[in-house]
């Protein structure tokens, strides 16, 4: 399986605390997660070591662990399995392959705001789709944080 790294960044005129809430609080993150598909949600407390389930309306998605969570600075998410029809799968070939993927969110203070960087490794065939989704998601986050 060949992989590529999606790297996106955006300057947001808001505090790191405000952006952190948009990433981690359900009432906010449901809006930007919709960039990946309607009904997408994150089920996690975003604490280091916690399990996370990223699912859609059909109860399909990814299972991950929050490997690193430094409030207002960084989140590192490592996939550990897949979710199919609401059932967790850690052992199938697809689930094992998914364990090679991660997402990382970095918040860096800048003049008049914060630089948010996202890094996600994906299979080659999904690079363009995931890149476009992150472009939309970051635009939504920026709008939320800047009051639009």
From TrEMBL:
Task: Domain (Activator of Hsp90 ATPase homologue 1/2-like C-terminal): give its ranges.
Answer: 14-138
One Pfam family from the record: AHSA1
Record-annotated membrane-spanning stretches: none
Q: Which Gene3D superfamilies match?
A: 3.30.530.20
Which protein family is it in? Belongs to the AHA1 family.
What this protein is called in its record is Activator of HSP90 ATPase 1 family protein
Per the UniProt record, the source organism is Dyadobacter fermentans (strain ATCC 700827 / DSM 18053 / CIP 107007 / KCTC 52180 / NS114)
């Amino acid at each position: 399986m060949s992989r590529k790294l999606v790297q996106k960044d955006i300057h947001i005129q808001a505090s790191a605390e405000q952006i952190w809430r948009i990433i981690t609080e359900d009432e906010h993150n449901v809006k930007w997660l919709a960039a990946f598909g309607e009904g997408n949600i994150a089920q996690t407390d975003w604490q280091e070591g916690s399990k996370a389930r990223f699912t859609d309306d059909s109860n399909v998605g990814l299972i991950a662990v929050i490997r690193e969570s430094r409030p207002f600075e960084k989140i590192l998410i490592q996939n550990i399995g897949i979710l199919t029809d609401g059932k967790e799968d850690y052992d199938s070939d697809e689930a094992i392959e998914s364990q090679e993927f991660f997402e990382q969110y970095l918040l860096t203070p800048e003049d008049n705001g914060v630089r948010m960087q996202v890094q996600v490794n994906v299979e080659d065939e999904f690079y363009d789709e995931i890149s476009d989704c992150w472009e939309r998601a970051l635009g939504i986050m920026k709008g939320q944080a800047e009051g639009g």
